Every structure is written in C-alpha cells, then in structure tokens.
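Q: Can someone sanity-check these two? First one:
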Amino acid sequence: MKNIVLFGPPGSGKGTQAQNLVDKYDWVQLSTGDMFRFNIKNETELGQLAKTYMDKGHLVPDEVTTQMLKEEVIKNKDAKGLIFDGYPRTTAQAEALDGLLKEVLGREVDICLSLMVEDELLVERILERGKTSGRVDDASEEIIRNRIKEYYKKTDEVSQHYRSQEKWIEIDGVGEIEEITNRLVEEIEKL
C-alpha cells in the first residue's frame, strides 16, 4: 500500500489530479473537501461545525478534520493505496496523520507531492469554479484571497515536516491536466 499526500493551495487542482491518480493506480482518494461536503450535506455535528469555519474562509480546526479522516482510513484500510487530498495542512495534522497511519495501517506517508501555482491563477481558477460549485467561499475574491493567505501562513511548516523526512517534492501545477498528471506519476514511479 502506498500513502501519498497531495498538497497545494486552494484551486491548485488537487482534486482533479487525485482522481487521475485513483484512475491510474486503483487507489482511494481521501479528500477533506469531499468529507466536509458529505458531513455538511448530511448535517452531521462535525459537518455543521466545519461549515461555520468554511463560510468565513478559515481552515477547519485539526481535531474536526482528523476525526473525519480517521473514520475514512479505517473504512479503506485494505485499499491498494491512499491519496490524501487537502490534508495535512498544519504540522499538528501531519503528526496526527503519521500517528493515525501507524496505528491503523502500520505504515507511514511515502511521499508528499506539492502542486505549485501562482496566486493570481489560483484566484482565477476558484472564481471560475464558484460559478458552478454553489460554495459561498468560491464566489468572493476577498474570501478566496484570505483562504490562500491562511493556507500559506499555516502550511509552510508542513513542508518543513516532510522536507525533514525527505518526502517533499514540488510539482509544477500549471499546464494541461494530463501534463501535470504525468509529472506526478513520474515521481510516484520512483518509489
């Protein structure tokens, strides 16, 4: 089993690229965004709590996100591989993921692939997505810029966590979708 963290700011294409890797390798994508949407749609306690943060453009607290994720890892413990999309976003989450994987699977993160995209392109992509997503936090440029700022502020330390383990790889996230997928596959094939 491979455990891949797909990293990058909002609008960097993590979800699309994760799905391409799922299709190629028959792995399971664990997307915090999907988990949040499911829990919000079904009005779970965790979902309602997450929504109050998301609507303001803030990151959801670690303990809420980690609990949602743990339930998904347990459900998918027999998968060929797991792709973590949107998690971890803080050092505390990275450490929680390390512990969770050891506890549930007896394994660790194999590699962290970080999609690199300039801020102005991120804003443009998210505003475009907002035309159809129905998400409040995709429709306001101010909220989008705040999300990007929060992302950088809180996640720079995560890159240090994985760099110290020699697992951090930066991937150019600009170009045709297939080109970006090929860049990711090239790094995965080195494992």
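And here is the second, same format, sequence then tokens:
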Amino acid sequence: MPALTSAPSLLPLYARAAVTGPLHRFSGGGDALPGTEFTLADQRIDARHLVDYQRVCGFGVADVLPPTYLHVLAFPLSVKLMTESTFPFPLVGLVHVANTITQHRPVRRDETVSLAVRAADLRPHPSGRQFDLLAEATVDGEVVWTGRSTYLRRGSSSGDKAARRELGAQQGPLARIAVPGDIGRRYAAVSGDRNPIHLHPLTAKAFGFPSAIAHGMWLKARVLASLEGRLPDAFTAEVSFKLPVLLPTTVAVAATHAGPGWELDVRGAKSGKPHLAGTVAG
C-alpha cells in the first residue's frame, strides 16, 4: 500500500501517458489489475480551490463540500495508478462510462481528509473490457465518502451485446441548463483533468469529436447542484454516461421522485439525445 506524501502532479503523469500509450495501441492489455492501493493522508481543503469548484459546477458557495468534490481530490491518485507500468491498459483511450458516489455524511472545509484509491473487478463489456477505480475518503478513521468510477477499454470482448432500448419521453419537470463552450477548460482548471477532448475544438477533432466535449463528472456535479437543498445528508448517486455533450449546447435535466430518492435523465434540449441517466437514493 504505497503511502504518498503529497498529491501527485498531473502534468508529468499525462506526459508519461502520452509517451507510453502507443506501446499499448495494438495490445488488448493484460488479464489482471494491479493490487496496488495508493493512499494520501491528512489533506486540508484549500478554500480558494473549493470556491472555484463550487462556482464552476453550479453549487452555492459554502463551507460544506459538494458531494462530488472529493472525487476531484482523489483523481490524481487514480491517474497515478493508471499510469503505473503494472497497469494493463493505457490511460489514453479509456472511456469513463459510469460513476457512483456515496456520501455517508457531509464533510466540512475545516476537516482533514485522508484518501485511498485502488482498482478492482476487471470484467467483459459489450464493447471491450471494463474495470472500476475505487476511492475512499476518511476523517479520523471514519469513512465519510466512497466513489466508484467505471472505465471502458474498447476492443474485442466475449461479453454479450447490449440490446438497444427505445427512449421514451422525459418524465417530470424539466430544467434547462446552458453549457458554455469553455466549460471543459474551466472544469479542467479545477479538476486537473486536462484530457484534450475537453479543452478545444481542434484538440477534440484529433480524437474524432466535432467539438470539445464536457467532462462527465462536471455534468454529474451540475445535475446534483440543481438538487442542492433537496438531498439528504447521506445518499448514493449512481449515474451512467451516455452520448458525449458537444460544446456549446443546452441540456434538459429531468429529476423525478422515485420513492425517497430521485431518477435522473439528462438529454440534449434540441436533439433529445441521452447524455446521463441515474438515480439518487437516500
């Protein structure tokens, strides 16, 4: 269990990924995930960074952390793990297809947080193989937050092809959210996730996208921000990321009550194409 003394710097890790990625280009990857778990103890929350994150994602400025904020703090550990020589897949080309976070209780800015990240559950996917990165945040030994990010490595697979389902009309009241063309750069500045597909139309086109696309975790955070004040202190928010959000655009967000929680459905306001689906359960 490698214990880090400071948060990994992301720029050198991205540079390593750019250099080593071509070595894996024609490889399906290994058959096992490393058993490594990176930990980072006693992290204080930077007040300026927290405010910047809250504003970019649409949360109100407050001393309580947004439920998605600890994902950003754990992200450098995830990137370090995925750029290790023992990791079976190159970072470049991995697709973030789903994310689950559980907030066990609200965390305040003045609390000191310890983080741990590991990989688990390599398994088939209809379009290749997928795995989870598991993150955990503790305060004085108490687990206060957990996250699971599911990544897809495209390629041949023995998994069954998923059947396509026809989408019905969005249900419940709709909120329209304008997504500006620079949101990828703005979110990258606070999250450290500087994947070129998010930053500029030209760099996105190099990867086959007609324009820059929004980060999936920005979209999830923005949707949860629209429910701010209506969520319990402890809950689980589970989402799957569908078609990319091409920038700039407007999305339609439907959040309908489902028992004690919510069902989430985000689509293009004009196109009706699905971008995010999920649930929030207390």
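A (reply): Looked at the second one. The chain has a mean pLDDT of 92. The chain has two domains: 1-156, 170-282.
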